[in-house]
Write a structure and sequence with these properties.
2 copies of one chain form a homodimer. Chain A is built from 9 helices and 12 strands. The first copy, chain A, is α+β, with helices and mostly antiparallel strands. Chains A, B: It catalyses: thiamine phosphate + ATP = thiamine diphosphate + ADP.
Chain lengths: 312, 312
């Protein structure tokens, strides 16, 4: 059944029946607005929008994959403030001919990804429209801690990363060349594995700045450098390039460090910590903060693109 | 300058420079997420999406008008829970050829409308995309009160309305027939006048259910009836049809009650109150709640359309 046949309220009913609300949800979908617990008297909020043909392709990703990706992009922003995600709201624009099954699959993916960090899908809106578009807003709870901003890095701090990097970009290249394997890389593009708990963990460890790497490591670390008025050097030998990525890079004629240093979509968290901070498992030191400005790789300017501009 | 020329970060910078953050904003745009005060330990949240060609036309509305309309649609949802809006987040998809001025005008309209209820624009996201789309999320504060839901109306309650109704629908008809006057009606469509403060006021008065009328009075009051398992009768003589609306209706060959009873976009608040509630200025009794189901007009079924389905 197409969405035009089921009508707006039919579609909403089909979607809502598939959603799980999280433990912070006081009032879920079905009223004018949701009500979400904000125990510490503040709420963290972020919005991201995914547009078909630009952020996803239906022939590359199933509807649940798109749901996972849309949720992850937002939930990672919440984690990057040092907060724990509590809720998602979703605005969905769908062409009238789209199968209602697709929207249901999307709802399944959104709900499943949110559940990974205990968050629920609490509300949303649907509209017809010529371009399939998914705009997600995530809310989160700081648990009494200060937010970790982009502007607190100091010379001498270490730069560390939590989560995979380069995998999703490699999967994107694989798909864009018409291949479907290596599966590990393609699946990494379809469903990023974000270490949400690393965000609050970094805040407790005293992280001085943090960002989620969505557009490319060098570009996003560059935002930390700019906001903090410091320079940041990234060490290329800090990254393991797994065999499957190295083999795929060779077969496709790509420098795998282009994926690692400038590829987006994995959403690892990059944070700076005071010198001497003992990083727990899951965090890997990848560079240092120094006086100056900009981002270098092994103390040299990086010659490739830094990341992704959504208008170019 | 087009948005493609200014680039993603150029556009964001131009927009952010025009935003005002409200008094509840602890951290505004520029980081991974915003931080908003949620003093009572809960946050109210709602999302609405506007798509060009479906919810607005650039030849009918300037960019600031679209900003006012997008903000009002969301802020009214927050008010309809009995809450005070605190913040907006905006996800914007724009064709690359759009002038950056347009996005700036949109930001001005969003900010100005939010300021009417003390809220700020605290964050957002922008993307290129073929269809101009504005998805807004609003947050709000219940101030220690229970949310006013849709499901609490009781037989014997009175139905009341705060705010104009029919004006925006009349303006829509005027514009769709190629006219630009009467100005009052066209402006009502471009910039709804929502009585935001009436939402918390209704909660304090003991409203048993509430909704914002965005798709048509009978359809939206029908949601109250369905959720509350009651019938609701609307009295047509409760509505004043102003002269300009009556004249326009006559000239256009339209029954003005179609605008009043089934027209959307004005976003008045409809609420039910226990019998004997003394309604303050600005609230007008328009009907009664009774045992049964569905919505009637003057005790009879309404033969026209009830409202708007965004997929038909």
């Amino acid at each position: 059944m197409s969405i035009a046949e089921s009508g707006e309220f039919g579609l909403i009913g089909r979607i809502v029946s598939r959603l799980d609300t999280g433990s912070a949800t006081l009032l879920g979908p079905g009223d004018d607005a949701a009500v979400v617990r904000a125990a510490d008297g503040r709420v963290v909020a972020s919005t991201d929008v995914l547009v078909e043909g630009r952020h996803f392709r239906r022939d590359w990703c199933g509807p649940a994959d798109v749901g996972h990706r849309a949720a992850a992009a937002n939930l990672a922003d919440i984690a990057a403030m040092g907060a724990t995600p509590t809720a998602l709201l979703v605005a969905l624009c769908v062409p009238a001919g789209l199968e209602a099954d697709w929207a249901e699959g999307l709802a399944d993916g959104l709900t499943a990804e949110a559940a990974l960090c205990g968050a629920g899908v609490v509300g949303g809106d649907t509209s017809g429209g010529p371009t399939l578009t998914v705009a997600v807003t995530a809310l989160g709870d700081l648990g009494g801690r200060d937010p970790v901003r982009r502007n607190g890095a100091h010379p001498g701090d270490i730069l560390a990363l939590a989560g995979r990097i380069g995998y999703a970009a490699a999967g994107y290249t694989v798909l864009s060349r018409g291949f479907r394997t290596p599966k590990m890389l393609v699946e990494a593009y379809r469903r990023p594995q974000v270490r949400y708990a690393a965000g609050p963990e970094a805040a407790r460890l005293g992280a001085t700045s943090m960002i989620d790497v969505s557009d490319g490591l060098l570009q996003d670390v560059g935002h930390l450098a700019t906001a903090s008025l410091v320079g940041i050097d990234v060490r290329s030998d800090a990254f393991e390039v797994p065999d499957q990525m190295r083999d795929a890079a060779k077969a496709l004629g790509v420098d795998p460090y282009q994926w690692v240093l400038a590829g987006g979509d994995d959403h690892p968290l990059a944070a700076t910590f005071p010198p001497g901070t003992r990083l727990p498992d899951g965090w890997r030191e990848i560079g240092t903060v120094h006086d100056g400005s900009g981002v270098t790789v092994d103390r040299k300017p990086w010659s490739g693109p830094l990341g992704w501009d959504h208008f170019r």
